[in-house]
Amino acid sequence: MTQTVLxxxxxxxxxxxxxxxxxxxxxxxxxxxxxxxxDLSTPLPxxxxxxxxxxxxxADSRTDEQRKTxxxxxxxxxxxxxxxxxxxxxxxxNFSVPAAFKAWxxxxxxxxVTFAYSENGPRGLxxxxxxxxxxxxxxxxxxxxIDFATGYARHxxxxxxxxxxxxxxxxxxxxxxxxxxxxxxxQIGQLAA
Length: 193
Known about the structure:
Blueprint: E1 4-9, H1 18-30, E2 34-39, H2 49-55, H3 64-82, E3 85-91, H4 99-108, E4 115-118, E5 121-124, E6 130-136, H5 150-159, E7 164-170, H6 177-192
Parallel strand pairs: 1-2, 1-3, 3-6, 6-7
Antiparallel strand pairs: 4-5
Helix pairs in contact: 1-6, 2-3
Protein name: FMN dependent NADH:quinone oxidoreductase
Family: Belongs to the azoreductase type 1 family.
Function: Quinone reductase that provides resistance to thiol-specific stress caused by electrophilic quinones.
């Protein structure tokens, strides 16, 4: 049984969102003991010069203001650390990830915190976790040459150590929504089995 799920929704739509529906279905089938909820439709701040300066200041040398600047980022990282499974509702917007998801990535991909540089290249520090992406699109086929969202999400999750990534695809909804949803529900059923 999954102990703790971090449930992230990246859709700007709070109602009528395919990825929200699919990610909620996935979480309910996992029957976790605890769910941490992160809804990215409430915007996260973009990185600023003050944030970058605070992030690259050694932790024991940070001012109170710098600690305050990093507080949300620290919270987002802690949510990842606390979860053993991360479920992400991820729509494809204009061939890529929503800006809200990119803002989340920027706040959690931190050298020395979620990844480290070594002689052999970067090494993810959030190991032993899995992620499930519920991806939906209007016309873009998942994992096609024009899907810059799914591969990016897999890559960046792997970069921070989460290499076990499953994708539930409800793609090309504008072409055949019924078939796309049926396929996604079948995939979820197989994932739960």
